[in-house]
Amino acid sequence: MATAAVHPPYPARLTARLDTPLSRWLWLVKWLLAVPHYVVLAFLWIGFLVTSVAAFFAILLTGRYPRPLFTYNTGVLRWSWRVAYYTYGALGTDRYPPFTLAEVPDYPTHWELAYPERLSRGLVLVKWWLLILPHYLVVALLLGGLRAPWADFGLIGLLTLIGAVVLAFTGGYPRSLFDLVIGLNRWVLRVAAYAALLTDVYPPFRLDQGGEEPEATA
Question: In terms of DSSP H, where are the helices of 63-153?
């Protein structure tokens, strides 16, 4: 009898815990409260671009991602995700994000990526622009592929807005909606890790919903 193949967990792991209770109206001003983070992230992402170029040549020549650059770039993605989780990427917590690249054990969301000891020197030439192209089309829809007369927004932003409106009127964030939003963000961060050359494991075309990562998938 044939057995289904079991796929190991993806090396980029996103976990999240929905905080309760959430303020009914704080989400209206989180864009303002998060301004200091946006300013810092603007500089961090400039550094991210520089270190990514340096990592590209390091991988091409040595087959290794320099660990200090890996730590910095994963930290920038982690910081960005925490801010998105607090604001309009999920609205999953009212706890203000910390100003750090490192993991914060007691914060309600975490993003981790296992350090790859070796990376393909050939894949680095094509994976960030050619191999990942189908995923770019999906991510465009999730982050900014919908158009309205007054704005451009993505599916994640639209679902988060629906959650915010429900929260305002009922005092609760629908769990099923939260699980879907986290699954979509998990997809985006997997693509980001691959496109940033941080892993050679191709992101699956699979929506893993909920706050916990699947340990194995048949």
Answer: 67-86, 133-144
